[in-house]
Amino acid sequence: FAMFQIHHADVFSVLDLQIQNAAEEPRVLCIIQDITSAGYVKATFDLAWGNTPDMAPLDHSSTMSLSDSSFEPGGKKNFLQLTDKDGEQPQIASDEAGTADSSGLDDVSKERFIGPLARDSTAGCSGDYSSPSYSYSSILNKSETGYVGLVNQAMTCYLNSLLQTLFMTPEFRNALYNWEFEETEEDPVTSIPHQLQRLFVLLQTTKKRAIETTDVTRSFGWDSSEAWQQHDVQELCRVMFDALEQKWKQTEQADLINQLYQGKLKDYVRCLECGYESWRVDTYLDIPLVIRPFGASQAYGSVEEALQAFIQPETLDGPNQYYCERCNKKCDARKGLRFLHFPYLLTLQLKRFDFDYTTMHRIKLNDRMTFPEELDMSPFIDVEDEKSPQTESCTDSGAENEGSCHSDQMSNDFSTDDCVDEGICLDSTGSTERVLKPKSLPTFELFSVMVHSGSAAGGHYYACIKSFSDGQWYSFNDQHVSKITQEDIRKTYGGSSGSRGYYSSAFASSTNAYMLIYRLKDPSRNAKYLVAEDFPEHIKSLVLREKESEEQEKRQREIERNTCKIKLFCMHPVKMMTESKLEVHKDKTLKEATEMAYKMMELEGVASLDCCRLVKYDEFHEYLERSYEGEEDTPMGLLLGGIKSSYMFDLLLETRKPEQVFQPYKPGEVMVKVHVVDLKSETIATPISVRAYLNQTITEFKQLIAQAAGLSAETMRVVLERCYNDLRLLYVPNKTLKAEGFFRSNKVFVESSESTDHQVAFTESLLWKLLDRHGNTIRLLVLLPEQSPGTLANRTLCQKVGGDSGVPFEGSTGNRKSVEVIEESTDKLKNLSQQQQGSSTSDSQKSSDASDFEHIESPTQEADSNASLCVAADNRELENRIRATAGGSSGASSDPDNHFASEERSDSEVNNDRSTSSVDSDILSSSHSSDTLCNADSGPIQLANGLDSHSITSSRRSKAHEGKKETWDTAEEDSGTDSEYDDNGKSKAEAQYLYFRAEPCSQDDSSSDAQKCLVVHVDKRITLAAFKLNLEPYVGVASTQFKVFRVYANNQEFESVRLNETLSSFSDDNKITIRLGRALKKGEYRVKVYQLLVNEPEPCKFLVDTVFAKGMTVRQSKEELLPQLKEQCKLDLSIDSVRLRKKTWKNPGTVFLDYHVYEEDISISSNWEVFLEVLNEPEKMKSMSQLAILTRRWSPTTMKLGPFQEVILESSSVEELKEKLSEMSNIPLENLEFAKGRGTFPCDISVLEIHQDLDWNPKVSTLNVWPLYICDDGAVVFYRASTEEPMALSDEERSELMKKESSRLLKTGHRVSYSPRKEKALKIYLDGGPVKDSGQD
């Protein structure tokens, strides 16, 4: 579809209409559907009305306005179809079969062309690069220039620029075409010349606007990560040429690179006394030209000026004198370079990237440097008039001239070189040097400018290239190719209109030329591009293969555009519910689509094709919307409502048994799952599906159920579960299902016995109790603590096993069989919108702003030796204990066959029935934990989401909540946890008895063989306190002596500590770990204690977890803490040699004094952390009015920082601080300077930056004002003597120190501001890829 939004005054080339006074006309939105397969040439097609086909097509020659032509204004959509005219295809707008070397469309074609034109011809060349946005459709049609762009993989613009330059070089392209790939000798995927050949063929023959370069980079041995590495285009050129030379060995193209790009120069030293000259010949592939000489304030203004500087000799005198072998002494000499031979293709690299030794950063020089379109190189040839009386010839080209030129070590003998065509040649005969004058002046014409836009840290490359076919300049900017002018080329000179001062580069444009490529003007050698008719036979074959591949791709895209993709479900007789995606062509019939789905779901041999059908299905509500009887021959595109990116419904492949008949599903019907309840056996049967209409009455609905389930309609009670835990008895006979709240998919419970249960109120009936228990019971896996031999004698059993530990169900007496619920495999999770409206009482409905869960880490062993512990000896004892518990109980668990498999519930349901879903900010951990999460010892545990193994599928709702974590609540409550006992000392768990039954789990239920496991069926409205009380017989200790941890995905554990909250956030098969250890009491807080080591590389070290209580003094907490430190950390400390202080992240804060009381003087909360600091001298902090400052001396003369020393101030006076520092360091007060440290403790900073980067000696009189803001203990202050000067460092010393500081600061996790971005070397792998070191990270 093409969408046009036009004004009446705009020229709409399709209709050739023009209306004046457009400002007063409304806009018209026109949508045109192209149903042809050809082009867009005027007067060769019709525009017909899409929504009113009876109207005549638009008249091309009409002069009527759009309004008069039945177009509707005001934002309304006008649908048109572009169709064939008189049964003939529209004519093609341009000749797409032309080669890439054509100059684009002719003038006539341009006038006839209909469609969006290319962007402005100067795009990408007139200023800094801005990345354009490209759609996939924009690269399907060739640019009007006739040339094809290259897709940027990520940061491969440098590669695209070089490839386009090589493609536009006739000699290189033609030579590459003449090379023939032998597939028997090499893999085409790893052959660099072959992939370049394919790319060039596509660039010349494809009809696309841009093509990919992934095959070329794959032949380089690069993976996808290389696409995100930007490199230097000149570096790539050298590496690629080297790779091609290696690949072309023993072929006709073996010396191609040297023939085209290699030149020669002479590196000489001439004695100024005797004229003796020593020289050697080097080769080069490019000439590096300096933009700005080292230490100079001005840059060279032109390429000619830079070339002259390149060959300008330097005089070796003074200490740099040259030792002359003829004079046998050191003499003044002249050293320099002379060009001997220029290559056919001359490459000039403008060295715009440099290193600033002042800032120690890489920089880009944006100075202006002009370059001519024709370059005369004759002034730079070796034509010196003075002749040396005797020279020494040296043809060793194995070394480079100080790294400035490329040396070709493959060629060592140049004495026989006869390439006089290039303009100059050196011929050595005997011991004399003779220069031949060139036949003609060596004039080169510019044809490629590779431009860099950006800085030294990164940027964008594109190429401006002149076509040798028509002399037109083009901008090749990744996907986009456009015509440009000479003015655009001049804009790449760089610089600004101002003077060429030292800082001019900083204010110049960052878009400028980086590499220039010239070609020698020689009619005898200048080649033309090969046209398709002159291609070698192997290239013609390659063109045919690529065209066929392109046509196949086009056909595949056409198929994709006409393919309906919809989610498909299947109730497989063996595999249960399976899910897949059905991709079917829009013209395929329903019968053919059913056959495809039948094969896709692997039903062959399980069910016959005649026993399968596709029906419209809503997986979210599990609703069968309709079936398609009599529409077997209807196309799927029509049946599904067209081709869409996504559908609001799904398809279900329904199966039946041979003796069954498919039930028709009509639109408007609702689906009802009916569970039959047996009050005598207290069971709920597998649901049966019934379809009803919303306008049916309850009486009619009962008769429908009676017919389907074989029950009596007269005594039937129907209970609708409208949403989770919302049970409604349907007792009004004439009320419709719609009025009762039925929706697409519904669930009802029916009971049709003649008992007296129906005479009591519904909420008091046995039916309600069964359904209530059925809806609220969940299945939990509880891992009990492992046995710890040797400690059994120290454990006490809080309750006799087999005594009164049983908990009766809902306060009832006598044995009662639990309800056995067998859910059908198709019974799925509830709707996300369902909300619990349960009527439970007591703590289960209380609103709470705190959470059950605290972030913890699983320890390798329990270390709470103070707990009174008691566990079973082994699994056998555990089973005996469970049986004893069940035997002595009057609860529902006395029946050995009793099993209660609860209804599947999603996380959304169990979360919604909580009055408030919030989390305590208390972060708990065992004694050997740290700040991070870790996995429990058991194997991987999937986060329970309410799904059983027979679930219909992984519901969208449950997936949305999988792995969900609670959010931290920062609100502090009156205590860190809730007490298990009320004010009278009575257990809160005794207030209400809810269903609880435990049994040992099988090996299938437990993923860990080492730990004993319980399967617990429990009413999730039970409080945590009651749940722990019920677990006492199985754990073997009192509920106050063990902790409950909920296990989430990836074995992350959170401790549940809110004893008055229910288990409503839990769902089926959630996992719980029980760990031994004292649980917190009311007013207690678990605290992490860290040791503060101010002068250590890692100043923060975790010690222990401990418990502080409300009302406790700091000294009392230290008294309880020290024995724990001695036992667990082997730290034997005295109470007066340690202090506690506030910890904020890694920063030490307020010092706590011994007489301070928690909650009164010190705010304490959950998730609390404190520092313990060992003192080397008696405590000097006596009052809260004092201020403890951590100071550190900086010595510029030694470039070192001293250790931390604490200074205690009586006030916030700057003068007092300076006096204390002067007294401590012996620096005179008038020479002392100080500065506040930055960042988190220990405020690390590089010694290369500290002297100038900090705000030294702020002009303030107090510490608590800007810019210091020192208001609390623990601030870091650096100080120095103003008379000390920084140490003088050489470049080598500075570089070495920078590396050391970088390593030090990276280890401590602090930012290194001067650290450059790590660069990756550019490599091309000739064997297909890098060799991976298995031991390398």
TrEMBL record:
Compositional bias (Polar residues): 390-409, 858-867
Recorded GO CC terms: cytosol; nucleus
Biased composition (Acidic residues): 969-982
Residue ranges constituting the USP domain according to the UniProt record: 148-521
Bias-annotated ranges (Low complexity): 833-850, 885-894, 915-931
A GO BP annotation: protein deubiquitination
Disordered: annotated span: 381-409, 828-867, 885-985
Amino acid composition bias (Basic and acidic residues), ranges on this chain: 896-912
InterPro entries xref list: Papain-like_cys_pep_sf (IPR038765), Peptidase_C19 (IPR050164), Peptidase_C19_UCH (IPR001394), USP (IPR028889), USP47_C (IPR045578), USP_CS (IPR018200)
Pfam family, one: Ubiquitin_USP47_N
An example Gene Ontology molecular-function term: cysteine-type deubiquitinase activity
Name of this protein: Ubiquitin carboxyl-terminal hydrolase 47
Organism: Cyclopterus lumpus (Lumpsucker)
Gene from which the chain derives: usp47
